[in-house]
Amino acid sequence: xxxxxxxxILILLLYLLLLSVGFWLRHETWFDETADVAIVMGxxxxxxxxxxxxxxxxxxxxxxxxxILTGQPLVGDLTEAQWLREQAIxxxxxxxxxxxxEKATNSAENMYxxxxxxxxxxxxxxxxxxxxxSQVRGYLTARKQFAGLSLKLINQPASSHPxxxxxxxxxxxxxxxxxxxxxxxxIRYRREGFL
Length: 195
What we know:
Helix content: 40-55%
CATH architecture of the domain at 27-162: 3-Layer(aba) Sandwich
CATH topology of the domain at 27-162: Rossmann fold
Structural class: alpha/beta
CATH class of the domain at 27-162: Alpha Beta
Order of helices and strands: HEHEEEHEHEHEH
Number of helices: 6
Oligomer: single chain
Distance between the termini: 47 Å
Shape: elongated
Radius of gyration: 18 Å
Low-confidence stretches: none
Largest sheet: 5 strands, parallel
Strand content: 15-25%
């Protein structure tokens, strides 16, 4: 009986540890003031669609004024940023409120190439939109790349459902894959000086 109780306690502690990892990776900021701009990081359409949907939702709720859509070539001459723009327009975002950044190939470059846009437009508040499982990487990268700027950084993760959820990621193989990919990228980004 004592061994059983010990095992239950051990399993609960392990679950709490894994749960805390999920909450830490998601890293959401609550806010109620309109932000100047949201940076929507490009990716393959399966990952990028929830990001632009989140950005369009914030835009329509008047919680963000402009969108910086970032990303490298996706297919042929079409960049991730252009694909995001097409989706944003379909979702009712005014084209005048969209700014493209088409050079970035990773999260660090998303922020690096967005910085001149932020400076040129005098933006003071920036929403970072990334998948739930990699939101903390987006935030830490932005904090490093925007050092020296007087910016309010706001985290608004896009849904990763059904692939990843902060409460249940540890019960699914794909949840472990996404979590491990994010943690390993955090380590690599730290080693390369991006964080």
